[in-house]
Amino acid sequence: MLTRAHAFALTGLDATPVEIEVYTSLKPKNPCFTIVGLPDKALQEARSRIRSAAFAAGVDTVESLLLVNLAPAEVRKEGAGFDLPIALAVLAGHGAVDERLVDEVAAVGELAFDGRLRPVPGILSIAEAAVRAGRPVLLCPVECAAEAALVPGCQPLGCESVQHAVRVLRGESQPTTPTASPSGPLVVAPDLADVRGQPGARRALEICAAGGHNLLMIGPPGVGKTMLAKRLPGILPPLNDEQALLATRIHSAAGVLPAGAGLVRVPPFRAPHHSATTPALVGGGTRIRPGEATLATGGVLFLDELPEFRRDALEALRVPIEDGVVRISRASGSVVLPSRFSLIAAMNPCPCGGGGPQGCTCPRERVIAYQRKASGPLLDRIDVGVRLERPAPEVLRVDRPETTTVVRERVCAARDRQYARGVVNGLLPVDLLEHVAPLSGECTQLVDEAVRRLSLSPRGIHRIQRVARTIADLAKSDAIAPAHVAEAIAVRLGAIA
Ligand SMILES: Nc1ncnc2c1ncn2[C@@H]1O[C@H](COP(=O)(O)OP(=O)(O)OP(=O)(O)O)[C@@H](O)[C@H]1O
Ligand SMILES: [Mg+2]
Ligand SMILES: [Zn+2]
């Protein structure tokens, strides 16, 4: 007997429909259980989980011949999400549930030996694919139902076990509605008012937040670099619908979305440790999983202690920063993942940190080598550089700086101007620059002079133009004025000098 079920294969962020055909023979000469159609190891192991779960549901498959075909054959199928649909087709083959009921729905979920369902990553992408494929009813683990329900048109049926799924299909049981969590824990970023002094760095942070630019902070230990970076998420505007859906899809595919958390509205803040490997930063591995660069999309990638990062890992970030996408190629084909974040990096000015009573005691060549190692691969990608010094003790005592709320209002106003034009300044493509950020004759002169003085690359020029656009937006100015360009050049200088 031939039965069918419908599942989805997740590759990167995209899910594609997979049709499962199960041929069952109840009294064969040679009982066996075979899965064909490019399954990975986790999927091969599905056989024991499915046998055991079917047994828990009252069906003994030990004497049966089971041939499972996953089509299309050329799509790689990964993970344990195929357990539930295969199990349902197997149960239908044994007459435990009407095959037509199974054929009508889509299903996803990992099985435990006793038939309980466990959540799997990538539900948002799977739910979208289910709707696209015209199979909007999705049987899934209870923990995944809320996430699937975020997709318009999807009708998730949360099930606790394969036994429960069968009863739900037959209309004998209600699906379980997940207990609504109060829209996830509200992350409260620490307040910008905690950082005393450092007006230059605060301004640089505001510009980067407003335009989504890349920032490098250089300064001796204990002056507030890490403090400032941690306060950046607080001054960023919440994600809009489109950004929130993308961020949620990414976190879901990476398996780091808490169950029932709802849409990711808070801009991501990713701060990988400096021991992070290249695959951890840009994604990849045997199963394609989003890396930090993708998880930071819509938010911030913070590289604290930049020179401590592995050289190859920094090199690997160059293209994602420039192009806004990560390309991962494997034998089974290549996958493109988004990586649009603003990069915030922090480092000491030299190996000794320059924080001792005599200031820096390092030989000059070592200082140069240190700075080159750190910023070399990424320097051309940095828009804004800022040097931080020790604030005077009285500054620490009396300074009453602006709060996160005040700064965020300016940032949001500047962002709204950009959204009205369609693109965030940090992501402005070169061919739109002349249209969105035109420079007057006087402004062009300033840029030309800077190009000669600093021997800037064309990429560097474009970066100055984008930052000038943001500075004008913060000033609520439609035109870019010479003062805006001058500040853009000054903050760019901080990264080079
Ligand atoms: N500008 C500042 N205003 C108020 N407190 C500060 C300031 N700078 C540093 N501090 C205090 O010093 C601590 C260390 O600051 P932070 O971790 O940001 O330093 P850092 O510049 O990142 O140093 P390192 O180079 O060692 O990483 C903070 O937790 C805070 O208590
Ligand atoms: Mg620090
Ligand atoms: Zn030094």
Structure, briefly:
The chain has 20 helices and 16 strands. By secondary structure, it is α/β, with parallel strands linked by helices.
Describe the structure in your own words:
- With 497 residues, the chain is α/β, with parallel strands linked by helices.
- The protein has three domains: 2-170, Ribosomal Protein S5, domain 2 (2-Layer Sandwich), CATH 3.30.230.10; 192-422, Rossmann fold, CATH 3.40.50.300; 428-497, no CATH class.
- Helices cover 41% and strands 16% of the residues.
- The protein has 20 helices and 16 strands.
- The protein has helices spanning 41-44, 46-56, 83-93, 99-104, 123-132, 142-148, 162-170, 199-211, 225-235, 241-253, 278-282, 292-295, 311-323, 364-375, 393-398, 404-421, 430-436, 441-454, 458-474, 482-496; strands spanning 2-11, 14-25, 32-36, 65-71, 106-107, 110-111, 117-118, 137-141, 155-159, 215-218, 269-270, 300-303, 325-330, 333-338, 342-347, 384-387.
- It has a five-stranded parallel sheet with strand order 11-12-15-10-16. It has a four-stranded mixed sheet with strand order 1-2-4-3.
- β6 and β7 form a beta hairpin.
- α2 crosses α3 (83-93), α5 (123-132) crosses α6 (142-148) and α19 crosses α20 (482-496).
- It is elongated.
- The termini are far apart.
- The mean pLDDT is 90.
- Residues 195-198, 219, 221-227, 348, 391, 396 line the site of adenosine-5'-triphosphate (ATP).
